[in-house]
Amino acid sequence: MYLYELPTTGAISFADFCADHSGSKAYTHHLSEATQARANIRGILKENKRTEDNERDYLSLVKLLEEYLPYIRALLECVAHDEIILKKEPTFSWRITLTESGFRDSPRMDLPGLHAEYSFVLLTYAFALSNLAHSIVTSVGEYEKDRAISDAERKAKDERLNVAGDFLCRASGIFTHISDIVLSEWQTSRAFKRPPDLSKEVTSALARLSLADAQTLAIRRLLSRAAYDSNIAPGPPLPKSHPAPSLLAKLHIECASLYTSARTLAKTHAASKDMFSGKKEVSQDLRHYLGNHAALHHALSHKWLGVDAGEKGGTERGGDAVAFLSSAKMKLDELNLAMRTRSLVIGSTDKRKVEKLDEVVHTEQTSVNAFYEHYKKMNDTLHFQPVPTTKDLQSRIPGGRIAIPAKAFSPPAPAFGPGSAEHARRQAEQLDLDSPVADDETISENRDETHSRPQSEPVTSQPPVKADYAGAGAYF
User: Per the record, where are the segments of Basic and acidic residues compositional bias (predicted)?
Assistant: First the structure.
């Protein structure tokens, strides 16, 4: 799973550039609340930057971001409805973390406008959800390989993987919302120079990355019982608890497709030069992560296609099993060589990431070799089927299958102003004050008198009262 470097931001006070133009001046205290909510986020981001990875409190950051989002939404709505006037255009300072930089620290960039702030807050929110999922996965460890774990403990850790996958699906929905909605609104508001972090190509790539990571967790969750049953002797025969190899192959094909398309989008941004962003590349760490995991899942899809052919295909598909597993072996060897070459020129932090992936590749190489040797021996001694070429294999690869979809992001209601619960309540109170209460009571009384008469009794007018004052009836 990818671990994001979180941005940091500079201090700001909304009262410095926001003027309350509402009739009752009801928003002044909300501006100070928004300033405090943003200061809380700034404080925890600075604290996380000084803390080790395994000690960072991503859950608290997620909660603080969820508290601040309604305020920035309210400011956008109030400015759009002229209930708050901007005395000057605000500038928000954020440190961009996905841009390739020759400096040790990520560069800081001043972004003008409330839309810039909203975009970066959502981006940070998605980063925090992804990192929270990463911390959950790290905390459960490789429990599938623990022979002493009880069935109840294994199921509890399976459920934690489900929670992590849910966070990743939410992050994917947020990245998509930024790409499809927020950046379009920001682009129409003014011309600006965007960093790669806030380009449509990169945010779309991050949406696919998060969904692919969630799909990887779903595969791990699907294999947890089978991995526990076969961790002593990986390879054939498959345990009864093992899911269908054809299903696993399709899930890995979808993962490879998501990682590949994400990498293509990230590279597309690097190759493009427009009036907004200029020519700046996405960080090599992100691009290498996408490329390595695309290659890994391509290899694993061929592994399970070979196992499916060997286990379910019978005599006729003995050659297919050997061909797919041979292809998987070759892809894993190429990936292993590429990672070892890169580990010679990267820093210690990136080297730890490569070493962790190298462990996964080594485990899969051992498993693939076991299956390959078994099915090759079976084909050489029993089936005698021709082994297809790599070109022939392409026509036998099925389409991918998604395990869990992304979760669409619904923006929270504004904390105040148009669209908020408080604003709706005030409008209802104003309508009550404007309505003629006395007339309503009179209408109600007349309605009761009318309904109290029998249906057959006609409604007649009362005769005039005879006047008894002096001069009554006389006309002058």
Answer: 444-454
Query: pLDDT tens digit string along 3-51?
Result: 999 999 999 999 999 998 877 788 899 999 999 999 999 999 999 988 8
DSSP run (H or E) holding 441: helix 437-452
* 366 in Cβ contact with 234 (< 8 Å): yes
Sign of the C-alpha dihedral, residues 262, 266, 271, 276? positive
* Tokens encoding 414: 């504004």
CB atoms within 10 A of CB 73: 22
What angle do helix axes 284-312 and 200-230 make, rounded to 10 degrees?
40
- Report DSSP letters for 309-325, one per residue: HHHHS-GGGHHHHHHHH
Give the C-alpha separation, 387 to 364, whole Å.
22
Amino acid residing at 221: R
Nearest to 201 by CA among 258, 270, 254: 270
Q: pTM of the entire structure?
A: 0.86
Sequence-ordered list of residues with C-beta below 8 angstroms from that of 449, at least 6 positions apart, any chain: none
- Name the residue with tokens 């991050």: 206
Task: Please write the tens of the pLDDT for every residue from 365-387.
Answer: 999 999 999 999 999 988 888 99
Neighbours of 78 (CB within 10 A): 27
Q: Which residues contact 130 (CB under 8 A, 6 or more apart)?
A: 1, 2, 3, 4, 167, 168, 171, 210, 213
Please check whether residue 389 is in contact with residue 383, taking contact to mean a CB–CB distance below 8 angstroms. Answer: no
